[in-house]
Specification:
The structure holds 2 protein chains of 2 kinds. By secondary structure, chain A is of the alpha+beta class. Helices cover about 30% and strands about 25% of the residues of chain A. Chain A has a 7-stranded mixed beta sheet, sandwiched between helices. A 5-stranded mixed beta sheet of chain A has the order 7-15-14-13-8. Chain A has a 4-stranded mixed beta sheet with strand order 18-26-27-28, sandwiched between helices. Chain A is globular and about 85 Å long. Chain B is α+β, with helices and mostly antiparallel strands. In chain B, about 40% of the residues lie in helices and about 15% in strands. In chain B, strands 2-1-5-3-4 form a 5-stranded mixed beta sheet. The longest helix of chain B has 21 residues. The N and C termini of chain B lie far apart (about 55 Å). Classes of the chains: A alpha+beta, B alpha+beta. Chains A and B meet through helix 1 and helix 18 of A and helix 1, helix 3, helix 4, helix 5 and helix 6 of B.
């Protein structure tokens, strides 16, 4: 099928987007309101919530990647000290629905996953049974008493072999392991390849990653039968969506479920999901009458929380001798793992949408096959399909430059759309909102002193030093909305309630878990209402308190959630202006808000205290005629388009010719995420994003052996970056406001992760180019580099 | 079977009967209710559970409570009091706040205590020394740069406090 994302063309605003009426705090690097509790150990993550009579759940997980379950014997476990309940798949099959998948791709095969495996296990770590005991240790002890009789089946591990004829098939009723085929094509591809001077082909592997938030997952449920109220605390990025899904899985009214996302210790997409353990813990609390807590171990986190990436792309690019790219053809195999999680099948399609990157490539095509293998499901991990796209197109640009013996900067610049081309329509059906790609590139070149870098590199090469320079010019898609392009609502909600004392509660449907919106939204609230950030409390993550929202992912919290908050704040500002105007006998349209006062522009000496105007709204004796009392406004804001941040990253590495060790010498990041509410927070997001990408480029990779065992099952075997592995990251920004939302913001949570891998890979290939290296797949480990140098050295002889 | 442990935690003396296998991290969190000490990996790699044991940064997820018996422990909840008994934050805590040294906050208590140990031994550390000293503590949010700046900030402010005293 031909796929095209239909989106409302964003109205191009004539003037610069309007920011808040006065900008005292917006744009300032305010330190965070979240921090005092967190730096004193006073925050409450799920495992910090203690309830009277609390019990603990522990899960028995499959040691096999693929096996039939002949029997599960829980009799000894049930007799173990402290154990109150032990259940296997058959015990809950009728009571709890399967793990939900919200993404729909036409013709995708169904592959339902029961919350506990019943007759077959399909990945190492799949839950088979659960035990509830009155103590953590007792619950874990009881697992040793469970006897599961497995009949091992041949595991399907390699996604290409999984597609071959004769491969064992994971799911009953499926003819093969292809979950779906998806195609996207735009432009005249035949003509592009026909008129090309050259065509290059390359296979690019984007390895499987493990997200590793520092806090593993966890859930705690309490059920009060008298009130018929189930409360579920979960380390989640999507409390409302989780509530809806849990209610559906347990077949209870959504009104009886309250989900609380307390302090959440990082997510990176891995907590943008609905997991079996969340439904089971809820069920077990209802069944036992005790609050039930489950805290994931790190080993479980590696085995049974979603993984990311895992794509094999065969790419062909058609181009002219002058570096103009004419067409791009990609065949992609996405290893989905054994089952669908919430968005699993959708993620690789984002790679297709973004495959042409920040270049005017007139024709492009992607054929994508999603494949089932005996592994944990892949899903949204920071960047979610877009890092794969950037890696793909940026490696392609480097290959073209190498082929033409041109500077990679020149080839990139040659293909940029110009500012006048925005909104820019891609052959993949997207409309990029705004951009000035040359500006970000120029700033990065200037900051890095690129010409000097190249001169130094040449000099060092003569001395035998292997220095490489890599460059990535990227664009990404974020600010996830509109709804037409999203599986479950592309909007966000915000309620602002000004309490009678004049203090403001700002309730956001976004669910920050480290991003800092308690601070940045308070900055916005303070400016719009003429208050201090301390007057505005941002509340999130509790479905009983906050109106229905979508959550934090896809770098959307500020662009979508922030705009919703902005609009609700403006509504109340307008109402307060009327009240104050009425009290002062002045024209309401001329009211200004500053210093906790409301006054008329024309007579600023006469003012009413903010709190008095608010009080008037509640006492309701001096309101303008026909005005409703109270001060509360809700907005459900849906953007007309996505937003498209962009930038240029430049990386300099040196390879030790003896050991293959890679040392980062410099990293320069110029990002354009539109207007910025708090530059301190933006820098933090950029640093963190880049370092996660450095992890992918240099160290990380989830490795399953041919039996489907996860060899990288602990932090001991799966290396994420440490402080000493890194160099100083030099950041700068250009500001090209987005016309999509009135704040002019784009989003920055994933930009670093999306941008950085090709800069690192490019730098490494550049460093190894004396050995004839044209491409290396990540992770760029010492051993791999050492072997390449040895092979290249031999070739050179 | 249970055994008796006696320890001082944040200046208070505790005596408890515990299972011999009880981890120090669980003792602090579940028995004493000091939940600022987090558990991120249970294998000594991530450092979220770092506490100060007789002034040394140790990983409480792979120490037994009985091994810690007789020692003096500082957790994140008690750190501020070690620097400013009259309230206020420890300079390292201040540094993390000033320099945006945390995002989700889960690694932060351990990261702060590891930095406190470093500054006790090396009051004026280089960037490389800071990065090396914090290599037993993982952070997945910040990319460490603001953490390095936080520790530099703390080093400077502790130096100033010392010279003010003189």
């Amino acid at each position: 099928m031909k796929h095209a994302v239909k989106m409302k063309r964003a109205a191009r605003s004539k003037s610069q987007p309007r920011m808040a009426p006065a900008t005292r705090y917006i744009g300032m690097p305010l330190k965070r309101k979240e921090d005092p509790r967190l730096i004193q150990g006073l925050g409450h993550y799920v495992d910090d919530v203690q309830l009277a009579g609390m019990h603990y759940a522990a899960f028995m997980r499959s040691p096999y990647a693929h096996a039939k379950i002949r029997s599960v014997d829980l009799s000894k476990a049930r007799m173990a000290p402290g154990v109150v309940l032990a259940l296997a798949g058959a015990d809950v099959a009728g009571a709890i629905g399967p793990v939900p998948c919200a993404a729909q791709i036409p013709d995708m095969k169904s592959a339902p996953r029961p919350v506990l495996a019943t007759d077959r296990v399909r990945f190492v770590g799949e839950a088979v049974a659960v035990v509830v005991a009155n103590d953590r240790y007792a619950a874990r002890d009881a697992l040793d008493l469970i006897e599961v009789d497995y009949e091992p089946l041949t595991p399907v591990v390699d996604p290409e072999k999984a597609l071959a004829k004769g491969s064992p098939v994971l799911h009953a009723g499926h003819a093969n392991n292809a979950a779906y085929k998806w195609e996207l094509e735009g432009g005249d591809l035949k003509a592009a390849f026909k008129s090309a001077d050259k065509v290059i082909r390359q296979r690019l592997i984007n390895q499987r990653l493990i997200p590793v938030p520092l806090e593993p997952r966890g859930a705690l449920a309490e059920y009060r039968p008298g009130e018929q109220q189930l409360t579920l605390w979960s380390a989640t990025q999507i409390p409302h969506l989780l509530r809806t899904q849990i209610a559906a899985m347990l077949a209870i009214p959504e009104t009886q479920v309250r989900v609380i996302a307390p302090e959440v210790g990082g997510g990176f997409g891995s907590k943008l999901n609905v997991y079996p353990e969340e439904a089971l813990v809820a069920y077990l609390a209802m069944k036992t009458g005790h609050p039930v807590k489950w805290i994931e171990s790190r080993r479980e986190n590696f085995q049974a929380t979603i993984h990311g990436r895992d794509q094999i792309a065969d790419v062909e690019v058609a181009f002219k001798r002058d570096g103009t790219i004419l067409g791009l053809r990609c065949q992609v195999i996405a290893d989905l793992g054994a089952y669908y999680q919430l968005l699993t099948p959708l993620i690789p399609t984002l790679t297709g949408l973004m495959m042409t990157g920040c270049y005017k490539i007139p024709a492009a095509r992607m054929e994508l096959i999603g494949v089932f293998t005996n592994k944990m499901a892949t899903d949204a991990y920071r960047g979610a399909g877009r890092p794969e796209a950037t890696y793909l197109i940026e490696r392609v640009l480097d290959l073209v430059a190498a082929e033409l013996k041109k500077d990679p900067v020149e080839v990139r610049r040659k293909n940029f759309p110009q500012p006048k081309d925005f909104p820019y329509a891609t052959p993949t059906g997207l409309i990029y909102d705004s951009g000035d790609y040359d500006k970000a590139l120029d700033l990065a070149l200037q900051k890095a002193d690129y010409k000097k870098l190249r001169r130094e590199q040449a000099a060092q090469r003569k001395k035998g030093r292997l220095v490489g320079i890599g460059i990535s010019t990227y664009v990404e898609i974020c600010g996830m909305g509109p709804s037409s392009a999203m599986p479950a609502g592309g909007w966000e909600s915000a309620t602002v309630r000004i309490e009678p004392t004049g203090k403001v509660n700002l309730l956001t449907g976004a669910s920050p878990h480290g991003q800092g919106q308690e601070t940045s939204f308070a900055q916005m609230g303070a400016d719009i209402l003429g208050l201090e950030p301390g007057d505005v409390q941002v509340v999130h993550g509790d479905t009983a308190v906050v109106p229905y929202g979508i959550g934090t992912f896809g770098s959307r919290a500020t662009a979508v959630g922030g705009t919703a908050a902005y609009k609700s704040l403006l509504k109340l500002r307008e109402k307060l202006a009327k009240i104050a105007g009425h009290m002062l006998g002045e024209d309401a349209s001329k009211m200004e808000f500053a210093g906790r006062k409301i006054f008329s522009k024309s007579a600023p000496k006469k003012s009413v205290a903010f709190a008095d105007a608010v009080g008037a709204a509640y006492v309701a004796k001096t309101l303008p005629p026909e005005m409703e009392p109270g001060l509360e406004a809700t907005t459900f804001y849906e953007p007309a388009n996505f937003t498209y941040p962009f930038g240029t990253h430049i990386c300099v590495v040196e390879v030790d010719p003896e050991t293959g060790q890679v040392r980062l010498l410099r990293y320069v990041a110029v990002d354009d995420c539109g207007n910025v509410l708090n530059p301190l927070l933006v820098d933090g997001q950029v640093h963190g994003g880049i370092v996660q990408s450095i992890g992918q480029a240099l160290f990380e990779g989830a490795v399953y052996d041919e039996q489907g065992q996860l060899l990288t099952g602990e932090l001991m075997d799966y290396a994420i970056p440490r402080a000493a592995d890194l160099c100083w990251i030099e950041t700068a920004r250009t500001v090209t406001p987005s016309p999509v939302n009135p704040l002019g913001v784009k989003g920055v949570g994933e930009a670093g992760t999306i941008a950085a891998t090709p800069a690192l890979a490019g730098a490494l290939v550049d460093a190894l180019s004396p050995f004839g290296v044209r491409h290396v797949d990540m992770p760029l480990t010492r051993e791999k580099i050492w072997r390449l140098m040895r092979a290249g050295g031999r070739r050179a002889k | 079977m249970s055994v008796q442990v006696q320890l001082r935690v944040n200046g208070k003396a505790y005596e408890s009967q515990v299972e011999p296998r009880l981890l120090l991290a669980h003792y602090l969190r579940d028995t004493l209710g000091l939940t600022g000490t987090h558990i991120g990996c249970e294998t000594s790699i991530c450092g979220a559970c770092t506490v100060l044991l007789d002034g040394k940064a140790v990983k409480s997820c792979t120490l037994l409570a009985v091994q810690a018996s007789g020692s003096d422990i500082t957790t994140i909840e008690g750190l501020a009091a070690t620097a400013s008994p009259n309230g206020g934050l420890h300079p390292v805590q201040e540094g993390f706040w000033e320099k945006h040294g945390l995002q989700c906050g889960f690694c932060t208590p351990g990261m702060i205590l590891a930095a406190v140990e470093l500054l006790g031994k090396a009051p004026d550390p280089t960037e490389a020394e800071i990065r090396h000293a914090l290599s037993g503590n993982l952070c997945r949010c910040t990319g460490y740069q603001h953490i390095v700046e936080a520790v530099q900030y703390a080093a400077k402010s502790m130096k100033k406090k010392r010279s003010d005293k003189r």
